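Preliminary data (for renewal application), citrulline complex.
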Amino acid sequence: MTSPATHFNHAISRRPAASVTGGLRAEDRGAPDLARMQAAHDAYIATLRATGAKVVVLEALEDYPDALFVEDTALCLPEGAIMMRPGADSRMGEVAQMRPTLAGLFDDLRDISGPGHIEGGDILFTGREVLVGRSARTDAEGVAELRIILEEWGHSLRELQTPEGVLHFKTDCSLLDPETVLSTKLLDNGYCFDGYRVLHLPEGEEAAANAIRFNDVVLLPDGFPKTADMLTREGYDIRPIDNTDCALLDGGMSCLSLRFNV
Ligand code: CIR
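Predicted structure:
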């Protein structure tokens, strides 16, 4: 079964720049290793391409250390794309860098014009609805502006809360198929995923929560054997990807691409 929330013919990624070593992070656990990060990024793109999707790979942007985390700049839906308005000042300029690429692909391109803020990492499209977590990066005004556009496109938006200390809503969850969500117990507090089947991350493997279902495979951070076993037992075809360096900047599988159908 295919769904516009899990099956895609296109993706956009951006190469990490040397400046990525200065990327934002909640806690400093050391700087990422650029060469290893590039190798992991290559493996990520090859995995997306192996499913048959066309992957556009944009040039690195030295002025924007976090620009490889393209997901935060836009929301791509079947009806069109919406440029976000990041809550991190240093990331605001990334939106204008992404806009021309999406303008070339989408007939209907909208902008969150502010004053509110919203980042793509706080948005989970499940096919039946759009879940948005308010966070330190995504505020009520940003969500309200998104809601107006989504209502016009016939999507319902459910506003939730990203837990304190968690960067983005999707830092702690992923869509595995239109009925199933992978989530930390912390995020799945009993109401977020009402109506979905929820698989909880095994204890100690919460950092594997940011995975992506992309066509018939699930890209999962490498090094989480209990999660890998659980998903394999559940019938998912997993592709482990080294996330060591992105994790130092609070990034995961979803952040590294925009995924859509055109
Ligand atoms: C940031 O703090 O904005 C970046 N270092 C990480 C962004 C991760 N993006 C995402 O989860 N969508």
